[in-house]
Design brief:
alpha+beta, 7-stranded antiparallel beta sheet, 3-stranded antiparallel beta sheet, 10 strands, 39% helix, 18% strand, HRQ family protein 2, HODM_asu-like
C-alpha cells in the first residue's frame, strides 16, 4: 500500500511540475480552448499578492428570501476561491486548534479507505494552493541537503507544516488548525446496491451547526440529510446524480442560513428540532430567547472532486452576524419576512427544523421595533 501510494504521488508531482512549467500564455490558451473541466484548473490559481489579512472583513452573506424553497441552489466558482480568509482568522484557528486538542474524537475521523484522498488534498493545499493563493500568509520553504524537503510556514502563527503528512489524522489536524474551513471527504459506496451514491469516509469539522459529524461517518448522503424536511422528496435524486457526475476541475458553491439563539461555533446539537421536541419546548424556550446572543448563522459551502483519487471534498466556512447588525444595516424587514417565509415555501416543516417556532416571534418583534 505504501509503495503504491508513493508511486502515485511521484506521478502526481511529475504531472504538476509539467503544468507549472507552462507559460502564462499557454495557460490562457488552454483555458480558452478547453470546453470541459480538467485537472489543470487546480493549478490556475490567482495569487492575492497584496492580501491584507487584518484589513479584510468577513464576507457579508445575506441569502434569505421571502419564501424558503429547498433546492440545491448551486453556482459555479473557481478553485482560487476555495478558501476565504479575513481578520477573524487568528482567533478562529486558535479555537479550532483547542477543539482538536481537547475533543479530537468529536471533530475529526477517517476510515482507512479515504487516507489517499486526504493526503492528496493536504499535499495540494500545502504545496500549491495556500502558498500561491495567499503568499502574505503562507510561505513555501525548501530545506537544503541531499534529500531536500519542502515545508509550509504559516506566517501568522509561525507554525511549520510538512507538505506531506505522516498520517491521515495528522493531515486532518493540520488542515483543521490552519484553515478556517471544515472539510468532509466522500467516496462512492462500495455496496453494489448503492451504485452511484456517495458515503462520508472522513472529516475535520470544528464548527458544526447542530449536527454530530462522528455519527454521520459511513452514512450515505440521504442518511446524512435524513432529518432535513423534504430532502428525500425534493432533492435526494438530483443530489445523488450531481455528486456522481461532478467532473474534476469544476467547483460549485452554495450558501445557507439559519438563526441561532447561541453564539457557539462548535455546536453538536441543539440548533434543530423535531415536531415532538417543538411541542415539548416551545413555551419554555420562547421566553429564553436572548436577542444579545441571537445571530444569523450562514455557511458558504463548496464541492469539488480531487484529480487523482476522485474523492469529493465538501467544505464549508461558518459566518455569524449578530441580529443587531442586521437591524443596524437596514436588513431588518427583509430578514423578518424571510423568517415568516420559512413556512410559506416548498417545505413548511423548516419552521420546526430551524427552530423558528421557538425564536421567530421574539426575533421578528425586535427587528420591527
Amino acid at each position: 500500500m505504501l509503495l503504491l501510494l508513493g508511486l502515485g504521488w511521484y506521478l502526481y508531482r511529475k504531472i504538476r511540475q509539467r503544468r507549472l512549467a507552462k507559460t502564462p500564455q499557454q495557460h490562457d490558451t488552454l483555458e480558452k480552448n478547453n470546453a470541459t473541466f480538467s485537472e489543470d484548473a487546480y493549478y490556475q490559481i490567482e495569487p492575492l499578492a497584496d492580501f491584507n489579512l487584518e484589513g479584510t472583513e468577513p464576507l457579508k452573506i445575506r441569502p434569505f428570501k421571502p419564501k424558503y424553497h429547498l433546492t440545491m441552489a448551486l453556482e459555479n466558482t473557481t478553485i482560487s476561491d476555495l478558501v476565504a480568509m479575513d481578520n477573524t482568522y487568528l482567533t478562529r484557528i486558535q479555537l479550532r486548534s483547542q477543539l482538536i486538542k481537547d475533543r479530537p474524537s468529536d471533530v475529526l475521523a477517517a476510515n482507512p479507505i479515504v487516507g489517499p484522498s486526504v493526503h492528496e488534498f493536504y499535499t495540494w493545499m500545502t504545496s500549491t494552493y495556500l502558498p500561491r493563493r495567499f503568499p502574505t500568509i503562507f510561505k513555501l520553504l525548501q530545506s537544503p541537503g541531499p534529500s531536500p524537503r519542502s515545508s509550509l510556514q504559516n506566517l501568522v502563527t509561525n507554525e511549520m507544516l510538512p507538505t506531506f503528512a505522516l498520517s491521515t489524522e495528522e493531515a486532518l489536524r493540520l488542515l483543521g488548525s490552519n484553515v478556517d474551513d471544515d472539510f468532509l471527504f466522500l467516496l462512492p459506496s462500495s455496496d453494489p446496491a448503492d451504485e452511484g451514491k456517495y458515503r462520508l469516509e472522513g472529516f475535520v469539522t470544528c464548527f458544526p451547526s447542530g449536527f454530530n459529524t462522528p455519527k454521520k461517518l459511513n452514512l450515505k448522503l440521504a442518511d446524512i440529510h435524513g432529518p432535513v424536511p423534504g430532502y428525500r422528496a425534493k432533492i435526494e435524486k438530483s443530489m445523488d446524480r450531481f455528486f456522481a457526475s461532478l467532473p474534476v476541475g469544476k467547483i460549485v458553491q452554495r450558501v445557507n442560513w439559519s438563526v441561532t439563539t447561541n453564539t457557539d461555533l462548535f455546536c453538536l446539537a441543539g440548533n434543530h428540532l423535531t415536531e415532538e421536541q417543538a411541542n415539548e419546548r416551545k413555551d419554555a424556550e420562547l421566553e429564553q430567547t436572548d436577542i444579545e446572543k441571537t445571530v444569523l448563522r450562514c455557511e458558504r459551502q463548496t464541492l469539488h472532486r480531487l484529480p487523482l483519487t476522485k474523492a469529493l471534498v465538501f467544505a464549508f466556512k461558518t459566518y455569524q452576524y449578530p441580529i443587531k447588525m442586521l437591524k443596524d444595516e437596514g436588513s431588518a424587514e427583509e430578514l423578518a419576512q424571510a423568517i415568516d417565509g420559512l413556512g410559506l415555501g416548498s417545505v413548511p416543516g423548516m419552521t420546526v427544523y430551524k427552530r423558528q417556532v421557538i425564536w421567530g416571534k421574539k426575533v421578528k418583534e425586535y427587528l420591527r421595533s
